[in-house]
Amino acid sequence: MSDFYIEDRECNSDESQECERSFELVCETRQKKLKPNRAMLRCGNSGALVLPVNTTAGARFTLTTVSVNVKDFKKPCIKLEFTSDIATTAAFLILDFQVFKQCKDIATPIPIGPIWTFSRSLAITDSDIFSFFVCDCDICDDECCTYSVVTRVASTVTVGVTSINHASLSAFIVDNDCNACK
Nearest 5°: CA angle at 110, between 109 and 114? Predict the structure, then answer.
């Protein structure tokens, strides 16, 4: 994104019709400097998990986390991106993934966005990239928060061996203040 925008056009000719017809030749563009918007990228720690065989429904595991500090941001908005590699060996299962947020004054983590589901309906050996993103624009200007991706076994019981590898969560934080452009 440019740090400038076109404010208006100023012609060097006294005849406005002639100026409009030959805009490229006689008109020049004035630019106005925009106030800078802050942006920050935070990468969390990479996680991995091997699900125990016969894990029962409802079992929860935290895969990865990322911490952010939005001090000095104006109405921050955070895009959280999760990616992982899910490998199964003769496995049948359904896993739910969700992002949770815990800030300094919150005792219990709160869910952010929808639940994302990965399912393996046949007991096969395979590997898949599983990724999603969600935005959180409901955050105060001076908060420090930790975001976590939690997976929950949604099927009645897992069969076979499943590993979730290279699970990573990143946060892209930007100013979301509409007045920053004025």
Answer: 135
Task: Extract the tokens encoding 39.
Answer: 């942006």
Q: Token pair 């983590």 is at which residue?
A: 109
d(CA 33, CA 140): 27
Q: Which of 130, 139, 133, 138 is nearest to 167 (CA)?
A: 130
Alpha helices in the chain (DSSP H): 16-21, 23-26
Of 171, 165, 170, the C-alpha closest to 63 is 165
Can you tell me the distance from the alpha carbon of 25 to that of 5, in angstroms, rounded to the nearest whole number?
20
Q: Quote the strand ranges of 12-158, DSSP E.
A: 27-33, 39-43, 47-51, 60-69, 77-103, 110-136, 144-153
Q: How far apart are CA 6 and CA 31, in angstroms?
A: 5
Q: Does the pLDDT value for residue 168 go beyond 50?
A: yes
Model pLDDT for residues 74-116, shown as the tens digit of each residue: 889 999 999 999 998 888 889 999 999 999 888 899 999 999 9
109-131 pLDDT per residue, tens: 999 999 999 998 887 888 999 99
